[in-house]
Amino acid sequence: QVQLVESGGGLVESGGSLRLSCTPSGRTVMNYERAWFRQAPGKEREFVASIDWDGDNTYYATAVKGRFTISRDKAQNTVYLQMDGLKPDDTAVYYCTANREGTTFWGQGTQVPVSS
């Protein structure tokens, strides 16, 4: 079993930055695609960004492209989400995932409130 632990969330002012981290425990997820999702209050969970297993390809939701950057440290199996230029609309619980061959593991989430 894989457990994913997100960290780095917290209250930030509009225009500010945060860096989220997601570290796995248990089984390795080195060859898994990694991604971030978020769920705002009263809304559906939505895709934010993903990175393939070797870090060569990244994908972003239109709403965050140019402001967020996903990266991974393959040696430590950690994935990061650098969030710059935060807006109140970015307020959400952010979840990291590890996905391979149809199996997806989810973290418990970390809250990111952005004040206006």
Mean pLDDT: 94
Q: What is the β-strand count?
A: 12
Residue ranges: pLDDT <50 for 5 or more in a row?
none
Helical amount: under 10%
Overall body shape: globular
The count of helical stretches stands at 0
Gyration radius, in Å: 13 Å
CA-to-CA gap between the ends? 40 Å
**Strand proportion:** over 45%
The main pleated sheet reads as: 6 strands, antiparallel
Helix and strand element order? EEEEEEEEEEEE
**Which structural class matches the secondary elements?**
mainly beta
Give an overview of the whole structure.
This protein has 116 residues and is mainly β. The protein is 0% helix and 55% strand. The protein has no helices and twelve strands. Strands 4, 5, 6, 9, 10 and 11 form a six-stranded antiparallel beta sheet that branches. A four-stranded antiparallel beta sheet has the order 1-3-8-7, with no helix packed on it. A hairpin with a 2-residue loop joins strand 9 and strand 10. It starts with a strand and ends with a strand. The relative contact order is 0.32. The model has no long low-confidence stretch (mean pLDDT 94).
Map the helices and strands.
Blueprint: E1 2-7, E2 12-13, E3 18-26, E4 33-39, E5 45-51, E6 58-60, E7 68-73, E8 78-83, E9 92-100, E10 103-106, E11 110-112, E12 114-115
Parallel strand pairs: 2-12
Antiparallel strand pairs: 1-3, 3-8, 4-5, 4-9, 5-6, 7-8, 9-10, 9-11
